[in-house]
Design goal:
The structure holds two protein chains of two kinds.
Chain A: E1 4-5, H1 6-20, E2 24-28, H2 32-35, H3 38-43, E3 48-50, H4 55-67, E4 71-77, H5 78-82, H6 86-94, E5 101-105, H7 123-128, E6 134-136, H8 141-153, E7 158-161, E8 166-167, E9 183-186, E10 191-195, H9 199-211, E11 217-221, E12 224-226, H10 230-240, E13 243-250, H11 255-266, E14 271-276, H12 286-292, H13 297-307
Parallel strand pairs in A: 2-3, 2-4, 4-5, 5-7, 6-7, 10-11, 10-13, 13-14
Antiparallel strand pairs in A: 1-8, 6-12, 9-11
Chain B: H1 2-25, H2 30-35, H3 37-47, E1 62-65, H4 71-80, H5 121-134, E2 141-146, H6 153-164, E3 170-176, H7 185-189, H8 194-200, E4 204-209, H9 213-225, E5 231-236, H10 259-268
Helix pairs in contact in B: 1-3, 1-4, 1-10, 3-4, 3-9, 5-6
The chains are: A alpha/beta, B alpha/beta.
The structure holds thiamine diphosphate and magnesium ion (MG).
Chain lengths: 311, 270
């Protein structure tokens, strides 16, 4: 099957939905070819604004557009959307609860060769701490397209975390994508893997591997980090007694932390976090980096074995 | 005159390195590295006070590559100047290499600042210049900015501060190649009239041909004479300079040449 990057799907979705939603405007910060907003720019040149290398200005302009009835999609790399423009995101977008959508591409270390300066490993932690912001991490192209549509429907700020790397399709048939409602990708009762983004595919591979060893593991695709589907987390804790989280993000403050918060308060069971262990990324081929930083199905399967006392 | 032709040869070597490195890496930024190759050559082989044996010598001149994506030009200059082996250049962007996709000061001797997020280098250079004044050291600080990079608000916050604190030990170069990623700077988000902006911010401003080594050397000599003000040298350059098919072509901002293109480029730079 052909792999597609979530940023590709983001660009396609914007270009497709632009006709039906005339209030959509798209802003970029000199990365339109990378974030794929170029598709929209070509189709709707009057509703596309390149702000140049000026991310803070882009977010502020988005706030003004939203305050005037538009639905702006502000797009750049995650590291700059959240890093350079955090204060604008906080004070001009989230606090006034303006209808700004942030398309943050090139998240995580799968950016590859550009290295640490361009690899956002902390954006989930930062965005999920912001009141009023919905934080979505789609796992494949189909989810991304649905997420863009849902983001349009949500009245308020939405952060879409997108990747550079082409990823496999996870859904054979059509499926329901509802922000805040996790998707159970595989049933199981021995443990639950809760994953997001490109780690969902790895989680499924890990579950397949563990099934061969007689361990039936549930896989939950937590595409919305905020609002978190606490019900799905509590259910997993109660029914499977052990949770492993998997994310292409620091283990500090991300999906693993969000899950652990819910588990500790409502149904304490062991939670192991697979993610980046408090370090910056580095240059290298994406697959080598995912291996080096412990973000593969093997690492997830090992964490499950460990949490089950089998290793 | 002989010195100039020697520098020109050096700049050509550095351009060859840029091509070989990005080709070996399979990714990277040749366009903006080639446009600044003459400036960086002049700095590392003539202008700056350096000792490759003592990269942390307190009295050394500093160079901040604010447009960090041009890392290949910096790495090549450092290697050719003896900070590390030129053979290491071909490890660019590979797993475990000290030559990260964007400069990492922790890993590579001679790199004065970790950069890559555009807009931040001038503020850092200000800090280095302020420290030089505080410590009564006579080193100079040089910084290289991109013209697209000039769109970042923080550049102008820093520009204000350099003038306010009368940082005459600071010299900036603007690589005015007219291109960024999404197209010509004038079309994406114009920064013009850029020289007037720097003047209005209180800087001494010169405009030169950024590929003429004698103009670069003369401009820096003049800049050193300026008292009480930071100096901006607006270098008119050509993105991709030296490789015909890369020149003035926005597509060569951030992609590596394939083997045929590499061969052609190296032949042109022979
Ligand atoms: C804060 C930030 N935003 C975006 C980028 C992505 N980016 C890398 S290079 C570049 C264009 C820079 O253009 P310019 O400064 O003119 O560089 P040059 O032409 O000298 O290569 C952009 C937008 C970045 N590195 N940092
Ligand atoms: Mg430029």
């Amino acid at each position: 099957m052909k792999k597609i990057a979530t940023r590709e799907a983001y660009g396609e979705a914007l270009a497709e939905l632009g006709t039906e939603y005339p209030d959509i405007v798209v802003l970029d910060a000199d990365l339109a070819k990378s974030t794929k907003t170029i598709d929209f720019a070509k189709k709707f040149p009057n509703r596309f604004f390149d702000m140049g290398v000026a991310e803070a200005n882009m977010l502020g302009t988005g706030a003004g557009l939203a305050a005037s009835g538009k639905i702006p999609f502000c797009s750049t790399f995650a590291v700059f959307a959240v890093g350079r423009a955090f204060d604008q995101l906080r004070n001009s977008v989230c606090y006034p609860m303006l209808n700004v959508k942030i398309g943050a591409s090139h998240a995580g270390i799968s950016v590859g060769e550009d290295g640490a300066s361009h690899q956002s490993v902390e954006d989930i932690a930062l965005t999920r701490a912001l009141p009023n912001l919905t934080v979505i991490v789609p796992a494949d192209a189909a989810e991304t397209k649905k997420a863009v549509l849902e983001a349009i429907k949500i009245k308020g700020p939405v952060y879409l975390r997108l990747g550079r790397l082409a990823v496999p399709a996870l859904h054979e048939n059509d499926f329901v994508f509802e922000p805040g409602k996790a998707i159970t990708m595989r049933e199981g009762s021995s443990a639950t893997i809760i994953a997001a983004g490109l780690m969902v595919a790895e989680a499924l591979a890990a579950a397949g591997e563990l099934a061969n060893e007689g361990l039936e593991v549930r896989v939950v695709n937590m595409h919305t980090i905020k609002p978190l589907d606490a019900e799905a987390v509590i259910k997993a804790a109660q029914e499977t007694k052990a949770i492993v989280t998997a994310e292409e993000h620091s283990i500090i403050g991300g999906l693993g932390s969000a899950v652990a918060e819910v588990v500790c308060e409502h149904c304490p069971v062991p939670v192991y976090r697979v993610g980046i262990k408090d370090s910056f990324g580095e240059s290298g081929a994406p697959s080598d980096l995912l291996q080096k930083f412990g973000l593969t199905s093997r690492h997830i399967a090992d964490a499950v074995r460990k949490i089950k006392g089998l290793k | 005159m002989e010195a100039i032709s020697w520098l020109e040869r050096k700049a050509r070597e550095i351009r060859r390195d840029i091509i070989s490195m990005t080709a070996a890496a399979g990714s990277g930024h040749p366009g903006g590295s080639l446009s600044s190759a003459d400036i960086v050559t002049a700095l590392y082989f003539q202008i700056m006070r350096l000792d490759p044996e003592k990269p942390d010598w307190p009295d050394r001149d500093r160079f901040v590559l604010s447009k960090g994506h041009a890392a290949p030009v910096l790495y090549s200059a450092l290697a050719e100047r003896g900070f590390f082996q030129t053979s290491e250049l071909l490890t660019l962007r590979k797993l475990g290499s000290r030559l990260q996709g964007h400069p990492d000061m922790k890993s590579l001797p001679g790199v004065e600042m970790s950069t890559g997020s555009l807009g931040q280098g001038l503020a850092v250079a200000n800090g280095m210049a302020l420290a030089g004044k505080l410590d009564y050291r006579d080193y100079r600080v040089f910084v290289l900015l991109g013209d697209g990079e000039n769109q970042e608000g923080m550049i102008w916050e820093a520009a204000m501060a350099s003038a306010h604190y009368k940082l005459d030990n600071l010299t900036a170069f603007l690589d005015h190649n007219g291109l960024q990623i999404d197209g010509p700077v004038r079309e994406v988000m114009s920064v013009e009239p850029v020289a007037d902006k720097w003047k209005a911010f209180g800087w001494d401003v010169q405009i030169i041909d950024g590929h003429d080594l004698s103009q670069i050397l003369t401009a820096v000599e003049k800049a050193k004479e300026v008292k009480g003000r930071p100096q901006m040298i607006v270098a008119e350059t050509i993105k991709g300079k030296g490789v015909s098919f890369m020149e003035n072509n926005v597509d060569w901002h951030g992609k590596a040449p394939n083997p045929q293109e590499t061969e052609k480029a190296l032949a042109e730079l022979a």
